[in-house]
Amino acid sequence: MSASTSGRLGWTVFTPPVAAIVLAVSWGTHPGPVAASLIGVALVGSVLAAVHHAEVVAHKVGEPFGSLLLAVAVTVIEVGLIVMLVVSGSGETATLARDTVFAAVMITVNGIVGLSLVVAALRHHLAVFNPEGTGSALATVITLAGLTLVVPTFTTSESGPVLTGDQLTFAALASLVLYGSFVFTQTVRHRDFFLPGTTSTPGGWTSETDTDADTHADPPTTRETWTSVALLVIALVTVVGLAKVESYSIEDAVDWFGFPHAVVGVVIAMLVLAPETIAAVRAALRDRVQISLNLAYGSAMASIGLTIPAIAVASIWLDGDLALGLEPMQLVLLMLSVVVGVLTVVPGRAKPLNGIVHLLLLAAFLLLTVSP
């Protein structure tokens, strides 16, 4: 490997393969406290490596493709994890998909958004972004969540928050159409609306926005980029795989504390979304809030738009019902998040208070999940 490649990648070259070895050795085991701690170290290393390699690739391909790449890559593997857990029959599988998707939505639209806004606003006085592109993303998230998580609560063809086969098929197709339409809008038709701004215009955006991810460094070479692509895939696989292995220890801790089983899904969702969270906060520190919001809302969309169709297909072979409809408490939290999200996005700039409000909604979600 060349000196430039080593300087750019450094320790992140070796971390994903080492973590993959740890995953191979620990897969299918029920680790004790010491082993779980070592696995946790490998998990953290994989998360940090994934963030680094995602940023290298994003620097090469430019925005918004870089944000889209990380969001889709993490979510595709997350979907595989959800389906695997449902098939394995571990825990309360009837509500597993719903609880995991809802946790991912709350973490992204409140946690990642809130952290990014607070960091950017405190460091740069205001967090500035393009309200048109971000508003389109939020509208898509709201529609996806409404069709797949809210509507099943009120359907009457089946008892409980369950969709019929036809309804689930429609929800799956609608999710794919909405997500596909947004990706086309973000990357082709109206790409400029999702680029970080370089001026102090109301949305912080101009059609001549610079798409370079870091104007203080040269773009990576093709060799460095493909190296990072390969290591990013390895890192993401190990993140989700190690999170699955750690889930046994998490389940033991949840049972010991007497928490609801939904807490397991929340913890795993937080671990899986850690790369996107770190990448979003780092972008906010550089005053590139648009990238942070692309990651947050893109991850929420991908989580719903890819998970629901996958679950719809998997349900052909699965026994029992899949409860997708939210509980009343979850509906209230989702509605509050929607209202606050709209009020945050419309002005195109935000103060630290806006981020704090989102973070408090996330805190309320976490508390009510532990103690409903």
* % residues in beta strands: under 5%
CATH architecture: Up-down Bundle
Q: Over all CA atoms, what is the radius of gyration?
A: 20 Å
As residue ranges, the low-confidence spans are 1-7, 198-216
Quickly count the helices: 13
Arithmetic mean pLDDT = 81
Short description:
This protein has one domain: A middle domain of Talin 1, CATH 1.20.1420.30. Helix content is 73%, strand content 1%. The chain has helices at 3-9, 15-26, 33-61, 65-88, 96-124, 131-154, 165-189, 222-257, 262-272, 274-285, 289-314, 328-345, 352-370; strands at residues 127-128, 349-350.
Report on the architecture of this protein.
The structure is a single chain. The chain is an all-alpha fold and 372 residues long. It has a single domain, classed as NCX, central ion-binding region (A middle domain of Talin 1). It has helices spanning 3-9, 15-26, 33-61, 65-88, 96-124, 131-154, 165-189, 222-257, 262-272, 274-285, 289-314, 328-345, 352-370, and strands at 127-128, 349-350. It has a two-stranded antiparallel ribbon with strand order 1-2. Helix 6 (131-154) runs parallel beside helix 11. Pfam families: Na_Ca_ex. It is a multi-pass membrane protein. The chain crosses the membrane at residues 9-28, 34-53, 65-89, 101-122, 134-155, 167-185, 226-245, 257-274, 295-317, 329-346, 353-371. Residues 39-187, 228-369 form the Sodium/calcium exchanger membrane region domain.
Give the topology, please.
Elements: H1 3-9, H2 15-26, H3 33-61, H4 65-88, H5 96-124, E1 127-128, H6 131-154, H7 165-189, H8 222-257, H9 262-272, H10 274-285, H11 289-314, H12 328-345, E2 349-350, H13 352-370
Antiparallel strand pairs: 1-2
Helix pairs in contact: 2-3, 2-8, 3-4, 3-8, 3-10, 4-8, 4-11, 5-9, 5-10, 5-11, 5-12, 5-13, 6-7, 6-11, 6-12, 7-11, 8-9, 10-11, 12-13
Main location: membrane
Transmembrane segments: 9-28, 34-53, 65-89, 101-122, 134-155, 167-185, 226-245, 257-274, 295-317, 329-346, 353-371
InterPro entries: Alkaline_pH_Ca-Antiporter, NaCa_Exmemb
